[in-house]
Amino acid sequence: MSVIETETVESPRLILSKLRRERPVCFRPEEFFEDNFDVDTFLALNRKSFTLESLKKDLENYSTTIQNSLVELINRDYADFVNLSTNLVGVDQTILKLEAPLIDIHADISIISQSIDSEIQLIAQKLDHRSQIRNKQGILHGLMSIEKLTNKIEQLIDNQTEGKESLFERVASEYSQLQFYVNKNEDLPFVMNMRPRIKRISDYLEGGLHKSFKSGLKNNDKNSVTQCLRIFTTLGRVDQSEQLFADAIIAPIIEELVSKENLANSGLAGMYSQILDALPAATALVLSLTSPRKDNELRSFDFMSNATFPTIVSKICTKTPALFAAGDPKQFQKSYKETMKFLSGFEKLCQYKERAANLRQHPSYKNFISKWSLPIYFQIRLQEIAGSFEHQLLTPFTFNTEKQKCNDDISSDTGEEYQLPVSEMLELCIKRCWDEDVLLRPLTHRFFKLTLQLLRRYAVWLSEIPTSSEELIISDICKAVHDSHLIVEKVPDLVKSLIADKVPPFDQTEILSISCKDIQDSIPILAEYVINEVTKNCEKALEQTQAVPRLYRRTNREMPTEPLGYVSQLTEPLEVHMYSSMLPEGVKTDWCSRTAHQIVTRYGETVSEILVSLRKTEDSLAMLKRGRKSAQTAATSNTYTDEDRIRAQLKLDVAELGAKFDAMGIPKGEEFEKLQTLVAKR
């Protein structure tokens, strides 16, 4: 690149730099260098931030700077510009001189190109013609081969100068080649005319081969069976040989063993056992010849998956359809487990893991498994288990006969005794879900979900107790709380022990803790209800407190020495419903403390009202006495006033209340100290 070109390319950058140094502008000058620069877009973007006047002014300044820079550049490189114009003199004449030769060359090249294209097209046509000839030669060769092989096979069949097995093998080899050519040319008239002869060969080969194969199987002739299997492989009729084996060997055995009579006499387990006992002898020969080793030329056969098993399940489905009915869940569960044991035993007869894997993927295996109506069975068990629990929830505090129904074949020992039948029913239902006579392994996830649903239903029932329309007994609610704590403590370990050997290892702790937390969250609702109800029952005795002033006002009674009977009535509901209940110690202490606090608070309010009223009465009487002249002779030998006796009685009552709390181990707290102070001061 020349000096002039370099300076010309770099000058816009220099101009931009110079412009920025002299005076900032309201637009980006780099935008003019962009390939997709558009005037309308440039104006639309910049007029949002600046006025058209300022934009015009900056553009004029930018144009002036560019023009000045261009003049400076020309002046600086003027000599180069002059030399450039001088060097260009005569260039147009030179170009005109070159034009005519170039046109001639272009014409010659066009002629040559057309000639080459013509030759290429001619060669392509000849190659296509040759390809057609080659195809026709191939067809002709195939037809000749068909004729030749057909004649050869017919001669072998007609002469039969060798043993049948050797003859079948030679015929099969030739027939395989014949089929290759026939399949390639099956639509040609010649092949259509040859069909009767080919069918005669096929019928002969098939009939003789089938007869020889069946004879070898029945006579346990290893050589004959091996040769027949090789012929089947050569002919590509592996599935046909497997069907022959099923019809000739397996079907008679299964026909005898699988029947309603045998099922009634031997039972399902006995029938399955008879089948498994009969199969080894029947399949030993073919299994020994068709092992899936890579060096075995007969490894493509799988008589257990493709022949034996489909025959067995077909007979079972046809002869004993009632086996799959889920109407009797107990019998269905037993039949299913026996069937799974049979399938496990059958897989062992396959001898190789590859064959067992093929068996599980076989359509007949999947169809047989699908016939077992596991969802229907689960629904029946769901209605049985959940129905028993729901029935008990109708009378949650009373035992009913549903317990025995759910507890079928399960020990009723639930460890530490529950206080309510509904709680015991919950544990029995959970155990029922995982009982060996109920659970089926494919339904494990559903029974685990049912377990969680039972726990959730129990939690919902607990939370709905305070809003129940039935008359509630406080002791029953305390029993429910006792059972709730026991369930939260027992159920996680119980469920873990029940499912330990029935499901793959997984962390069920978190899932169970969520269900147990739902039960725990219901306890505060019950606590609030019980505390309020007990407090209401206790407050009924506080009405007798209002009668204390009437006992001593203007009666001249002696100073009291014993508390009144209402104090015992005040704490009796607390003692009966909470202190004597089966609540856990921590819960009992908390509930008793909260109830006692409410009782003391309400008692303090009542005593305060009595004392305020008493003070007002005493003040009124004192004013009245001072206004009477006879007050001087009204003195008696008694030195205690009515207020003294009333306060003394209240003090004894409060002390008795404190003693009651101490006997129950309830902390009295700050409110009780305030109550003592209230009745002690004058």
**Order of helix and strand elements from N to C terminus:** HHHHHHHHHHHHHHHHHHHHHHHHH
Task: Give a short account of the largest sheet.
Answer: none
Spatial gap, N to C terminus: 118 Å
Strand content: under 5%
User: Helix coverage percent of residues?
Assistant: over 70%
Low-confidence parts lasting 5 or more residues at pLDDT below 50? 1-10, 401-405, 407-412, 629-638
Overall residue-averaged pLDDT value: 81
Radius of gyration: 54 Å
Helix/strand structural class: mainly alpha
Kindly describe this structure.
This protein is mainly alpha-helical and 682 residues long. It is 76% helix and 0% strand. The protein has helices at 3-22, 39-46, 52-76, 78-87, 91-159, 164-184, 189-218, 222-235, 238-257, 260-289, 303-319, 329-349, 353-361, 363-370, 374-394, 402-406, 421-433, 444-464, 474-499, 509-542, 548-552, 566-579, 585-626, 642-663, 669-680. The longest helix has 69 residues, at 91-159. The protein is flat and about 155 Å long. Mean pLDDT is 81; it is low at 1-10, 401-405, 407-412 and 629-638.
